[in-house]
Specification:
By secondary structure, the protein is of the alpha+beta class. It is built from 23 helices and 11 strands. A hairpin with a 5-residue loop joins strand 8 and strand 9. Helix 2 crosses helix 3, helix 10 (245-273) packs across helix 21 (635-663) and helix 18 runs parallel beside helix 20 (602-632).
């Protein structure tokens, strides 16, 4: 392999400045064993503490200022708050549940259930009216738990299910419904992460040609994610962190950690091939690619911290946890990776140099030739390429306009699960709205709570969309009453959402004007509507914060107005495609997925994460284009060379993220399925279509104007250098 004089000069002279990245890389490389010991100590210490304390994850579903939260607070004020939830043992027998033999079998089974752990009370379907369907074939027993559903141990729920199943036979069917029962159908986790890591390793081996080299980015990701997850286990005792936060941290942390290490390692390999010594190659790689990693990580963290503006407990805890994960992956890429390169540097130098020499001896094209040709082809028809790609992506994003937010219930569970079968039986026997009743709270009034509740029952029974309203039940202090209103439609149907609005805006306010009582609509179905509404109301502020801060950061980094604005628009486009795909698959039920609403907090979560990750690729590509621009001041040449040097890395990084995120479709949790699928689609579109087609076309059309920054703005913004000089 022949080196030019410029290469020899660059590889032998010392760095022009001793920036922070140079100093960190040099220290980690020279003190490699100290750096490794410190990281191992951090990982071991964090998990030792986590093993001692255990986790205390808590789902915070409070919605300050919403009507459903006011209803819950009012019930608590009047002594109607309950510590435990319920599960239903749903029974079905075509011969009739009131047959004497069936009644005895069911009664014996319920007596046994009453003696199980975590069971407070059991109400038989034969104790009163309404627990057996009109035709006598479907009924349910209510099992009152001693604890809330989220705190119910899965093994104890399994005991209830197994005991109920013992009664089956001779045409009698028994299923278990309720939130606690849904956990029985989820199975074990962990396979998604394993499949994603194996697929990522295969891609890295194909890229670098050696298992050791391919394993380094994965090691970086595992150290960073492992340390952060262990820290969150301990922090869950102090802060409110939802139980679904760790899987999301793993989802994002693995993808980001491998990506950041890959970017630095690819630059390190290029330096070795150019003839640099291992230590010098490490310093050069961190001085150039390390800057991209740092600023890319900052954009992801900024986007995640924007979720704090929503004021929702579970989202805030998730945002802070994932932001900490990204911070740790940055630190690992900038400190642990140089240490590992110091350990394996000599071996890598021999392997990569020999591979490059064999490639040159075989007459193969220089690496990056394909990407250089692709950029040239796009540059010949930039406007046509830009419009064609934008139209296709716009069509794919269009279904997102019909997205319906909510929370999935047992109606979205797999058909073979006991919770889904219980849901279907209850819908068949008592109507589709039985699985999601509205809880109306009546407070005060001229005739007292009892009269206000009775009047509400009559008004609800006369409201279109209400199948039936139960008699009012007074609170323990007698100052308020609750009424269950059963919609004619299923909890996830749009008609149910409209009914909630009708009751709140028309029916109950008119009744309140007549009798002076206060009426509030609460319950799980109404809370879902309130959550979705709160997310929609605060979405513009969130987007303004995330997009605005990211644009300002990129303006400071690239000294440009058009490049950051273009990046923001394209990132929004890739997010739109992701949300459109999620709507088609999970809401409309394409690809064999059970249809249901998109989880209410997922669009903003996907927005924050994908917007930040998309900025990663933007910074990776544009920083190299800017580096070539400062050398040649030829905008077309800079675009071609920038894509030639980063196209394979961006594509490989995107492929790794796609397989890791896509592997979470194997997760039993619908939330993780939706999040993984949406982010996989967004990253695929961003890495393949936007970065490799739209960005070169847009940069070609902008030409020299791409690097224009008004003088007043240039004086206000801090100057941040991305390239080595």
């Amino acid at each position: 392999m022949t080196l030019t004089d410029t290469d020899r000069e660059e590889n032998t002279r010392p760095p022009a400045r001793r920036g922070v990245f140079v100093r960190v890389a040099g220290f980690a490389h020279r003190r490699r064993w100290l750096a490794l010991i410190l990281w191992v100590a951090v990982l071991a210490g964090v998990w030792a503490a986590a093993s001692v304390t255990g986790d205390d994850y808590r789902n915070d579903f409070s919605l300050p200022g919403t009507e459903s939260q006011q209803a819950a607070d009012l019930l608590a004020e009047h002594g109607a708050a309950r510590a435990g939830d319920t599960v239903e043992i749903v029974l079905h027998d075509e011969g009739g549940l009131r047959e004497p033999g069936v009644q005895k079998r069911v009664g014996d089974m319920l007596d046994e259930v009453a003696g199980l752990p975590k069971v407070g009370q059991v109400h038989s379907p034969y104790d009163g009216e309404g627990a057996v369907s009109g035709d006598g074939t479907i009924g349910y027993a209510t099992v009152v738990l001693d604890v809330p559903s989220q705190d119910m141990p899965k093994n104890d729920t399994q005991r209830i299910f197994d005991t109920a199943q013992e009664v089956e036979g001779d045409g009698l069917q028994a299923e278990l419904g309720g939130d606690a029962a849904r956990l029985l159908g989820e199975g074990g986790g962990g396979s998604a992460e394993g499949v994603g890591l194996i697929a990522a390793l295969v891609i890295l081996v194909l890229m670098f040609g050696t298992v050791i080299a391919a394993g380094l980015p994965i090691i970086i990701a595992l150290f960073a994610v492992g340390s952060t997850v262990g820290g969150i286990v301990v922090a869950s005792h102090v802060f409110t962190i939802a139980e679904w936060t760790p899987p999301v941290m793993i989802l994002v942390g693995l993808g980001v950690g491998i990506d950041y290490a890959l970017l630095v390692f690819a630059r390190y390999r290029a330096e070795l091939v150019r003839g640099a010594e291992p230590e010098r190659a490490t310093v050069n790689a961190l001085d150039a690619a390390g800057r991209s990693v740092f600023f890319a990580g900052c954009t992801v963290i900024l986007a995640l911290l924007g979720l704090v503006a929503f004021g929702l407990g579970s989202l805030q805890g998730m945002a802070l946890s994932v932001a900490l994960t990204v911070l740790m992956t940055m630190l690992a890429a900038l400190t642990l990776l140089p240490a590992l390169l110091g350990v394996f540097g000599r071996r890598f130098a021999r392997q990569f140099t020999r591979r490059a020499e064999r490639r040159e001896a075989k007459g193969k094209a220089v690496e990056g030739t394909v990407w250089r040709r692709l950029a040239a082809a796009v540059q010949r028809r930039p406007l046509a390429s830009l419009l064609a790609a934008a139209v296709v992506l716009g069509v794919l994003a269009f279904p997102a306009l019909g997205m319906r937010l909510g929370f999935s219930d047992a109606g979205s569970d797999a058909p073979e699960t006991t919770s889904r079968q219980a849901y279907d039986l209850l819908s068949e026997g008592f109507g589709p709205g039985f699985n999601g009743p509205l809880l109306v709270v009546a407070d005060g009034g001229t005739g007292g709570a009892a009269q206000a509740g009775a009047e509400a029952t009559r008004a609800l029974n006369g409201t279109p969309g209400v199948q039936a309203a139960a008699d009012p039940v007074p609170t323990p202090d007698g100052e308020a009453a609750t009424i269950l209103a059963f919609p004619s439609s299923a909890p996830q149907d749009e008609e149910t959402s409209e009914l909630v609005g009708t009751l709140r805006d028309d029916v109950l306010p008119e009744l309140s004007d007549r009798n002076g009582a206060r009426y509030l609509v609460g319950g799980a179905t109404a809370a879902s509507e309130d959550y979705s509404g709160k997310v929609a109301d605060r979405l513009p502020l969130f987007m303004a914060i995330v997009v605005g801060l990211s644009v300002l950061l990129l303006m400071a980094v690239f000294r440009s107005v058009l490049v950051p604005l273009k990046a923001a628009l394209l990132n929004l486009l890739s997010i739109g495609v992701a949300l459109g795909a999620m709507t088609l698959v999970f809401q409309d039920g394409r690809l064999g997925v059970e249809p249901g609403p998109i989880e209410a907090y997922l669009p903003v979560m996907v927005f924050a994460i994908v917007f930040g990750l998309s900025m990663d690729y933007e910074i990776f590509l544009i920083s190299r284009i800017h580096e070539e621009w400062t050398r040649s001041e030829d905008p077309s040449h800079a675009v071609r060379e920038g894509l030639a040097h980063t196209g394979s890395v961006i594509t490989a990084a995107g492929a790794i993220m796609v397989v890791i995120f896509g592997a979470f479709m194997l997760s039993p949790q619908r939330l993780l399925q939706q999040a993984g699928f949406g982010m996989a689609v967004a990253i695929f579109v961003d890495a393949v279509v936007i970065r490799c087609l739209i960005v070169p076309a847009a940069m070609e059309l902008m030409g020299r104007r791409a690097w224009w920054l008004p003088a007043p703005l240039a004086r206000l913004l801090p100057k941040v250098e991305m390239e080595r000089h």
